[in-house]
Amino acid sequence: DAANKYLQHGGGIAGQMVRRGGEIIQEESNKLSPIKTGEAVITSAGILPARFVIHAVGPKMGEGTEDEKLYNAIKNSLNIANERNLKAIAIPAISTGIFGYPAERCAKVMKKAVYDFLKTKTTLEKIIVCLYEDWKYKIFLKEFT
User: Fold this and answer.
1) SS3 136
2) Domain range list for the chain
């Protein structure tokens, strides 16, 4: 889940997760916030068809060291999934919405973070990149193939 540092899930993907999964996601998030850009935390998934939601805070364009912060957000999400012995994780194009991070850069950083992570021993069998716009899908497909 692409989140803000206060883990207030009002809009975007985060807001949809709370609306569909239930207020328990927001209540658990409130106990964990605030977190820094590049960090990730885990909550239950409420009534979503998943066991957990991993909330990662990506960078806003213009704040500096954006690539490093995005890399850390993705890598920390993968590490949390691995620590929980999860078999699969779905990751959106973090920061490419209202935070203004270019999709092309996000695809490159995500590829590096995922490939670096896969060099370690992991329980993850499937890493899914969730993309909701066709134009972003094309960018990520080109980068990952």
Assistant:
1) helix
2) 2-144
CA distance 62 to 83: 32
Q: Please report, for the chain, how many H helices and E strands are present, in that order.
A: 5, 5
> If you ran DSSP here, which 8-state letter would residue 60 be given?
P
Q: What is the mean pLDDT of residues 37-63?
A: 97
Residue recorded with tokens 């896969």: 118
Query: For residue 53, how far is the Cα from the chain centroid?
Result: 9
What single DSSP character describes residue 40?
E
* 128/101 Cα distance (integer angstroms): 20
For the record, the structure tokens of 56 come out as: 């990662």
Strand partners, 126: 88
Task: For residue 78, give the nearest of 144, 128, 145, 12 by alpha carbon.
Answer: 128
Q: State the CATH class of domain 2-144.
A: alpha beta
pLDDT (mean) for 102-124: 98
The pLDDT tens digits for 11-36 are: 888 899 999 999 999 999 999 999 99
Check pLDDT > 90 for residue 115: yes
pLDDT for residue 1 is more than 90: no
